[in-house]
Amino acid sequence: MARILQAPLKFHPSEWDIANKMQSASTESQKSRSERVTAESRRLLDEIEKTTQKTQSDVNKKIEQRQEEIKFWKQELDNKLEQIFHETELLLTFKTRLEKSLESCKEPLDVAQKCLLNRQRRAGIDLVHDEVEQELMKEAEVLQGVIALLERTLEQTNEQIRLSRSAKYDLEMDLKDKFTALMIDDYCASLTNNTPDIRYVDHTVKIEGNFVSPEDWTDFSNVNIEKAEKQRNNSLALRTLIDGILSQTASDMCQQREAVNVAFRNRVKEVRDAKHQLESLLMMVMDETASQEKNIEALKKAIADKEGPVKVAQTRLEARNHRPNTELCYDTVQHRLTSEVKEITKNIERQDTLAQAETELKGLSRRQLSLEEEIRVKENTLYIDEVLCMQMRESVHINNF
């Protein structure tokens, strides 16, 4: 109880003074430290503000630079896309030329084959492997070769169009991505610290695995441009090749067509000349036949005319052979009668030329039939070559598409 009522501890005035001084010193120290922190904070805030502004300014410049890079490559892609598109359209027109040229080869080939088939209907000696047939066969070979070449070139053209369109597609996709990227960066460039829709977004600094390096980004567009340029150059070379092929094949076909036509004209002239010669020979044979028929008639008449004199002479001799005794004399009359009978008999025997003349007449008749048949063969040949073939070939036109 006594302890509870014990008086509180008393401090010495000096202790009180020291305590007050310590409080003052401690407060001053705390205030000083606080002021230093405040000053450091202000310096730090000012540094952070300047750094942030500088960084944001640098980012804005980087975005601006990136926009220019995208615009540059976008323009490059646009230019190359326009070039490959234009070149592909030109190649499509060349493809049409190839198709028309290929289609136009069918009729000349059909005509050449029909001419060869028609000429198989020539008869006899006229069924000859002449220059016309040789040139027709060569024409068919030329046309078949041209068709094969045009078909291969058309296949090559279709493949080149496919490759060009593939390059064009890659450019379009790259351009589409560039356009989207430019729109995004334009949006980013428009953002400021006071833009209403800015917000906190978590995990934005995380770099995903599908990010590419700037070098890869540049290489990607560069590869697309180089691919398009390569296909454009290939297309240019192919168009030059097609132009040469169309010109050369048209020239070859025209040249061979003219060679066949010249051979036909020459052959028709030869056959017509041969026909005229045969007709002249036929007229000669017919004239000779008429002459031989007259000769035979004359020979027959001459033989008939000698029957009277020979009968008279033989009757006289027969009668004088009956003279009596010494009157049976071989006098001048007997001698002349005997000579007359021998002479007439000999002359009659000389008329065996009648049989020879009749043989010759038969030979002339056979020759006439042979000539007439040969003339019909020539007429058939002329009809085939001049009417069927040459008129059919008049409808054939070789165009340089």
TrEMBL record:
One Pfam family, short name: Tektin
Alphabetical UniProt keywords: Cell projection, Cilium, Coiled coil, Cytoplasm, Cytoskeleton, Flagellum
Presence of the UniProt keyword Cytoplasm in the record: yes
Biased composition (Basic and acidic residues): 30-41
Protein's GO biological process: cilium assembly; cilium movement involved in cell motility
Location in or out of the cell: Cytoplasm, Cytoskeleton, Cilium axoneme; Cytoplasm, Cytoskeleton, Flagellum axoneme
Residue ranges of the TM segments: none
Family (UniProt): Belongs to the tektin family.
Function: Microtubule inner protein (MIP) part of the dynein-decorated doublet microtubules (DMTs) in cilia and flagellar axoneme. Forms filamentous polymers in the walls of ciliary and flagellar microtubules.
Record-given protein name: Tektin
Organism: Pedionomus torquatus (Plains-wanderer)
